Give the backbone structure.
Amino acid sequence: MSNKDAVIVVEGLTVRFGDDLILDNVSLEVYRGEVFVILGGSGCGKSTLLKHIIGLYEPAGGRVIINGIDMTAADDNKLRQVRRDMGMLFQSSALLGSMTVFENIALPLKEYTDLSDRAIRLMVRMKLAMVGLSGYENHFPSELSGGMKKRAGIARAMALDPTILFFDEPSAGLDPVTAAELDLLIKNINNGIGTTMVIVTHELESIFNIAQRVIMLDRGEKGIIAEGDPMRLRRESTDPRVRNFFNRHIAEHLIEGA
Amino acid sequence: MTSDKLSFSLDGSPGEKQTLYLSGRLSIEYLDKMLSLIEELFREKRPAEIIVDLKDVTYMDSAGALFLLELEHRAANESIPVNLLNMSFKEKGILDLIDRQSLKEETILTEKRGQGIVEQIGYGAIDFLNDIKNVVSFTGTIIIKLFSSVFHLNTIRWGDVITCMKKTGVDGLPIVGLISFLLGLIMAFMSSLQLKQFGANMFVPSLVSIAMIKELGPIMTAIIVAGRSGSAFAAEIGTMKVNEEVDALITMGFDPVKFLAIPKVFAAMVVVPFLTIFSDLFAIFGGLVVGVLGLDLTIHTYIQQTMKAMKIFDIVTSLIKAVVFAVLIAGIGCQRGFEVKNSAEEVGSATTSAVVSSLFIIIVVDSMFAIVLSYLK
Ligand SMILES: Nc1ncnc2c1ncn2[C@@H]1O[C@H](COP(=O)(O)OP(=O)(O)OP(=O)(O)O)[C@@H](O)[C@H]1O
Ligand SMILES: [Mg+2]
């Protein structure tokens, strides 16, 4: 990360749902080729931030610039071009229920490339092998377990080897072994293909394992309360909210009440 | 992104050691090209050994890795050694992403599509019969639970009943009113064209009111309610099934039929007769407009003639019919919803099938009413 080449720039992003202000004037940068982790308590707006970054919703204020393209002002053509370079794993996996796992993963391949059926079949099998789901091509999403859906969602997000990957809680619902394998996969993709990764996760172990830089959001603050290397934050942060998170402490007033 | 294309050259005479020099991008755009390169290599050169030189490769993604693995795989099948030269650390990392063993794994489920026509007809028939059985037994369940609810009024979720009454009744009134008004208008107009010739204009009011009260009022209302609300019930319960909400209800000790279906059926039973009455009134009003503007009848005469044609017996049976339709429409809507298992697609077909089956059953039950009533008189 010697040359800090920002792929994602968020400037003063403000998000509100009705009267409910979720994020207030949030700014951040994600540099090319880094693993960037978003932390924060449940309901603090992590998924919402991701969805705004990939341009699913229009923000109440601020801009999101990806690869130099302003997502809030881009036309459909530009958006399509940016989206080809992005892959997203949704918190609920969001596999298309009427299609088999194979068809789900083949979908972006068919849409964005003109590969032959054989090449597509090989690509899909390879992606499934990467996430440890070999053999599940003809299963429908409803026939998979929660963790398997997550992994199928990851395979779909990676189908086109995008340059930016967004994962919303990839290891939620996975056993520790599979979760550790997934961490390894994330690291290898990052090292091998140089993919920029923006990941929301709560798994402390995984954070220390994969994150090069983290930001922490807070519901009360409606924005970022800490940023930096997770190890350093754990050691040096003076903010009790950050310390509690990294040390798995519950807030002090709760302990006293018990 | 760099625009250096993939290019390659092969060195070595057929049957001997082959050296494959690759340069540029080993990426997904070129996957087909790379795969056919493998075919060509094995078909035309029948190599004894393969060397792949990756020195000039500028970019490799997982498709590139796939190509190398395919090459290795093919070579291994024919026990030809493969050597990858000048592979960078990064490229090795990508290759390591892929578990070679699991690439060869068989698919667990065979593809389910593609049954023969005979099979399809067979399954279709079984489905149809099962369907009838399910509808009958579900309607039975609902009627039993309705009775038990009537005796335990406090077990009914009145909040839901009220919302549902509003959605089915109040919100449905404009469209029921509009369609019935136009129906009355058209009926009066078309019949008057004929009746005028005999100077029998006087019969237009009774024609409209008898036709509406005895048949068209209940049927039109039922059709609109099936389209508006039966489908909505199926979609709502179906989506809840997909999201495991129904399972959650069961786990919390609720009876899903009582929790979800009974309020809807109850609301429909109350509201559909009212809609039917409104439908009759609007149609009569439509007839009245034609009668007054086109047939020179006075408002007074028109209403008088209409009243003369109305019989209490017809009105009561028409309302009973409406209640029965209501139970059937709401019941089928809910039953279709509960049949959904786990995908959004099923919610779609449940909704369609709720409407289609309701319409079918409405017609069947209406004919039964017609026969029974003709004997009752
Ligand atoms: N579509 C929406 N309409 C209204 N409010 C919403 C919507 N989506 C999210 N919110 C609100 O935004 C806040 C943040 O939600 P978000 O899903 O981003 O949380 P999160 O940080 O991802 O939490 P978790 O870790 O539990 O997934 C919540 O308070 C939620 O109520
Ligand atoms: Mg979330």
Summary: Chain B touches chain A at residues 27-29, 31-32, 35, 61-63, 65-66, 69-70, 90-91, 93-94, 96-99, 102-103, 105-112, 242, 341-345 (CB under 8 Å). Chain B has a mean pLDDT of 88.
